[in-house]
Amino acid sequence: MISDRLRNVLRSAQSVAAFTGAGISAESGVPTFRSKGGIWTKMKPEELASMDGFMKNPDLVWEWYAQRKRIMADVQPNPGHRALAQMERLFPRFAIITQNIDNLHQRAGNTVVHELHGNIERNYCMACGKRYTNEEVLASAGVPRCSACGGTIRPDVVWFGEMLPEDAWDASVRAAGSADLFLSIGTSTVVYPAASLPTIALDAGAMVVEINPETTPLTSRVDEFLQGPAGTVLPELYDAAAAARKEKA
Ligand code: BJW
Ligand code: ZN
């Protein structure tokens, strides 16, 4: 399953970037967006994950986030997340670039995590910017109101039409552009600008490996496609990396 070429790159790589999407958390019990049975087979993305959607139907959008906040607070990192945390210790530079908002990489032990689409544990007032914890906003039913100014509170996530956080984006572009090995894991690679990161890595000469049970628009351009669930493939990749780097030492 692991080619000689990949084994050689695992042995020599100084810098690794792992780009993750909803698929890596699927085996923890967090629903994906676009897979079979995913959230958006039932609802249009713009109706839930956009400012327009929130303005038109605040109760529906807030209830969707409240439900996902509860799910994400209860789930645990899976073997895929844990393998990436172990891999961080094998390479001089190792960055997670995640589109996920669920904190599971941090909870698995990764220390360099660039969050492109925000974080489900944070919330802020759209009028005055005051920050709120999930405990505070989930205490009462319905869309929460700011205690300081009465404004509407929203989750600190990136909706369609909104800019990505500049620091996380800049750090992700640097990590993709300087990686010897770039892993694209559990993402459909259809949401931009995040989906341009594998191309940045390819153009800069990285070996790009995709890990997904299904093909995506990226698949035909990667150096290797490891087809399967992240929770199975990533522990195998970690074992191969640990063995290769032990040989080297
Ligand atoms: C497994 C598995 C297992 C299952 N193991 N794998 C250029 C071209 C076209 C459009 C645009 C463009 N540039 C910008 C746009 C517009 C838009 C966009 O990209 N639209 C396209 C969809 C058409 N982008 C934006 O609006 C972005 N902002 C922006 O561009 O700002 C500049 C700007 C400002 C103003 C005007 C114009 C431009 C913002 C995008 C924000 C995305 N936000 C969301 C919601 C976050 C909060 C929340 O969670 O509620 O982010 S949308 C949603 O999609 C979420 C995800 O992070 C993101 C990506 O989804 P992901 O992670 O790939 O999940 P899935 O479900 O799609 O795929 C799961 C995969 O896992 C599948 O492949 C499965 O097979 C696999 N899988 N089991 C491994 N066990
Ligand atoms: Zn306020």
What does this molecule look like?
The protein has 249 residues and is an alpha/beta fold. It has 11 helices and 9 strands. It has helices at residues 4-12, 23-26, 45-48, 51-56, 58-74, 79-88, 104-108, 134-137, 166-178, 197-203, 230-248, and strands spanning 15-20, 93-98, 113-115, 118-125, 131-133, 153-157, 181-185, 207-212, 224-227. Strands 3-2-1-7-8-9 form a 6-stranded parallel beta sheet, with helices on both faces. The protein has a 3-stranded antiparallel beta sheet with strand order 5-4-6. Helix 6 packs parallel to helix 11 (230-248) and helix 9 (166-178) packs parallel to helix 10. The two termini are 24 Å apart.
Bound molecules: ligand BJW, zinc ion
Structural class: alpha/beta
Question: How far apart are the first and last residues' alpha carbons, in Å?
Answer: 24 Å
Mean pLDDT score, rounded? 96
Order of helices and strands: HEHHHHHEHEEEHEHEHEEH
Low-confidence runs (pLDDT<50, min 5 residues)?
A: none
Helical content (DSSP H or I, runs of 4+)? 25-40%
Instruction: Indicate the overall shape.
Output: elongated
Widest sheet: strand order?
Answer: 3-2-1-7-8-9
H/I helix tally:
11
Largest sheet: 6 strands, parallel
- Percent of residues in β-strands: 15-25%
Number of strands: 9
Q: Supply Rg.
A: 19 Å
